Amino acid sequence: MARKRPEDLRSHRWYGVDDLRAFGHRSRTAQMGYQRSDYAGKPVIAIVNTWSDINPCHSHFKQRVEEVKRGVWEAGGFPVELPAMTLSEPFQKPTTMMYRNFLAMETEEALRSYPADGAVLMGGCDKTTPALLMGAISMNLPAVFMPAGPMLRGSWRGAALGSGSDVWKYWVELRAGAITAQDWEEIEQGIARSPGHCMTMGTASTMTSAAEALGMTLPGAASIPAADSRHAVMAVMTGKRIVDMVWDDLKPSDVISSDSIQNAVAAVLAIGGSTNSVVHLIALARRAGLELDLETFDQVARETPLIANIRPSGAYLMEDFFYAGGLPAVLKQLAVSGRLKVGARTVNGSTIGDNVEPAKIYNDDVIRPLNNPLVASDSLAILRGNLAPDGAIIKPPAAETRLHRHAGRAVVFEDYNDMAARIDDPDLDVDENSVLVLKHAGPIGAPGMPEWGQLPIPKKVLAKGVRDMVRVSDARMSGTSYGACVLHVAPESFVGGPLALVRDGDVIELDIPGRRLDLNVSDDELARRRAAWRKPAPRYARGYGRLFSEHVSQANEGCDFDFLERGAPTPDPEIH
Ligand code: FES
């Protein structure tokens, strides 16, 4: 479309007209120290900033937002910072997932109700990325995502430490008595030593990479470490770019297409991304009115080699990934092998194919060439069966190979507290062949589908030197976790999914190559159990918890609210 004129700007209805309300908008802007010439006829850029004192992953955003503003000013825009719910993964209970849709709504409604012509979305800590994108897609104003960037490598006695992955690893060693309390305390001090999000290929790195593959960031933005000066430069460039996007009216609906969604799925699988991305990408696609189902992930996983050698699937960390060429080098590999839809548009105005054309691999152990992948295919698998009629997920490379086909007796925990109370009980009837089952950990039952899916290995099994067991739940798992964990079982147990009917001693059969998850109990017996099953009382009588419980969808549908998923965009309010 032709470039906008100043009177075409959305903010013109607040600032540019000559009525009583506009007088109020201008006089109150003057109250903040601005002259008319600072904003008149300029795009107003809302900078949605998820900084807070309790979000270590965004602790540099106070500085970065100034850099975004500098870019906006330099390009002739008027920057307006809008703080938004921070979703701090390490602190928020029961889980940030409970509030992803909250931030998505906040983003959409803030952009709608204020004089925003375009938006810079500042996020990175796990759920902030999908939440900001979901809100921006629904509002459909020109928008760029500015990723927080990963923190620097952790360090302990000369060894590199990775967020999450090494916490789980050394926690097991501490429980097994293989490291001391002093060692554990030193790890605590060395594992998170700079601003930025988790620097393993956890949900944060996965989702910021997915945002880049979707075309919603500047090229290369997702891999730059937060502490690197190039991250500050990227922030300035993002601020500059959004002003031009407003004049060009380049909106999320011009960028996000079935091709760009397909690119995000392929990218996630090539980098060994978090299982959480499945839920988030389905939600994002649905916000854009596009179809994305679990089978697409399974199909793309069969065809896509895992080439990023990053923990938890591989050996390195995001800092190494950046030096090795970062996401553009991975996307280039996908492009040359025909796995990337190269014509998909991106926020910089070029196609993703053009953007990644100059990319190179600078360390082919960190980013493997396609003929030497870390895992040739199946970095993710979708399971179905009588225990998961609407699907479940497993990350095969994260599980010991001996467990890829496994049948074992269920040891059932009714909820998280039950599990925490009994998992290390010496009298628990469990051995290394058992299948640990956790109920009531799904979207409604937990609530919020927390990352409880990597159930701890019972101490008495650990003592035998065993480090992996089959675990089944309707929970999610941190992207930094590993193990033979079957996740996202749908429908969840709280709403009467078959998981609710499992009892101690039932045999559960996992067959990853056959994509099956079955409960070896007769249909008659299951029907008897179902007749005896009673729906648990609602968790919430009021407030956001009630809204969440009444409207959240199941994992295979993206866990969005039913009233936000699709439909025509909400029109702008009449401005008075
Ligand atoms: Fe923020 Fe991991 S805690 S990304």
N- to C-terminal distance: 28 Å
Please work out how many helical segments DSSP would assign: 21
Strand order of the largest sheet: 12-11-10-9-13-14
- Morphology: globular
How would you state the average pLDDT, rounded? 96
Which range best describes the helical content: under 10%, 10-25%, 25-40%, 40-55%, 55-70% or over 70%?
Answer: 25-40%
Strand tally is 14
Bound ligands, named by name, code or SMILES: FE2/S2 (inorganic) cluster
Radius of gyration: 24 Å
Describe the biggest sheet?
6 strands, mixed
Residue fraction in strands: 5-15%
Uncertain parts = none
Spell out the key features of this protein.
576 residues; alpha/beta; 6-stranded mixed sheet; 14 strands; 36% helix; 12% strand; globular; binds FE2/S2 (inorganic) cluster
Topology:
Blueprint: H1 12-15, H2 20-31, H3 36-39, E1 44-49, H4 61-74, E2 78-83, H5 97-113, E3 118-123, H6 128-139, E4 143-147, E5 154-156, E6 159-161, H7 165-175, H8 181-190, H9 203-214, H10 229-248, H11 252-255, H12 258-270, H13 276-287, H14 294-303, H15 318-323, H16 326-336, H17 352-356, E7 381-385, E8 388-394, E9 405-413, H18 416-422, E10 435-438, H19 459-462, E11 470-473, E12 485-486, E13 507-511, E14 516-519, H20 523-532, H21 543-551
Parallel strand pairs: 1-2, 1-3, 3-4, 9-10, 10-11, 11-12
Antiparallel strand pairs: 5-6, 7-8, 9-13, 13-14
Helix pairs in contact: 4-10, 5-6, 6-13, 9-12, 9-13, 12-13, 12-14
The structure holds FE2/S2 (inorganic) cluster (FES).
The site of FE2/S2 (inorganic) cluster has 10 residues, from loops.
